[in-house]
Amino acid sequence: MNKNKDKIISLKRYICGYEEFNFPILYKKCSIPKKKLPINVFMLEHRKYGTILINTGCSNLLKHNPVSFAKFLTKYSVTFTEEDFIDKQLEKDKLDPRIVRKVLLTHCDPQCCGGLKLLPRYELCSGAKVLTLVILCDPTDGLMPSVMPPQEVPKKAAGIFEGQTILKDYFKWVFDVFGDGSILAVDLPGHAKAMTGFFLPEKNIFFAADASIDESAIENDLTPSSALLKSQCYPNDYSDTLNTLKSLKKDYPEITFLFTHSSFLMNNE
Ligand SMILES: [Zn+2]
After folding, report:
1. Total structural domains in the chain?
2. Which pTM was predicted?
3. CATH number of the domain that 150 lies in?
4. What spacing in Å lies between the alpha carbon of 101 and ligand 1's midpoint?
5. Which of 42, 52, 197, 229 could join 208 via S-S bond, C-beta 3.0 to 4.6 A?
6. Where are the extended beta strands (E) located within the chain?
7. Range(s) of the domain holding residue 73
């Protein structure tokens, strides 16, 4: 492929918080020790649409409701400081947060939505199911109401992708975020009420959010324990989705999977 014509020009990772995972408890017969993993936000530079973020990481807005935040910390071992916030990190890179024109949101979790309100102007893009949950945000839903964007933030649901892609052998529906084939989207059921994964065909990168804790479950063919399954919204769907990703990786080893908590270094780090 001619790199000079690629629609996605560059990809960078920001670490916007950390979460600890106890692998021996979360997977059957697992020798991987407990790991403190990053909460990743990815920044893409699109030739036509400019600067795009995938998710937004943690921010102090999560502490807005102290009771909900304390409850959240009993379930998730999440840590973050002000230096981790996406707006602070962009400013450190001499980037005005206003350059972010699109946010691709994988799902409505505090670790993905925490920084949305730190960005002054953007269009929120995802699968229709995820955007519906954003619009219908339950005001009693723990931390989420304090981090959800105002209703007037423009939203764009990915339309059906008519072209050819290997993803059609694995997923019933494949969507096209911008209608130009640069970023495809699929539903990844199980982890949350709705979750969207994003595939960059030019780069063979599949951002699969929280469909797995990180790439080690796919690389080592780990089986989720009942403890891990119980913490998912729809446990059977979570297993099915993980198995789909394992088959995709087996058939196409050249695909790089990135997750919210992937720990390996990117090319430019
Ligand atoms: Zn999640």
Report:
1. 1
2. 0.95
3. 3.60.15.10
4. 23
5. 197
6. 8-21, 35-46, 50-54, 77-79, 100-104, 123-126, 155-157, 159-160, 175-176, 184-187, 196-200, 205-207, 256-258
7. 3-258
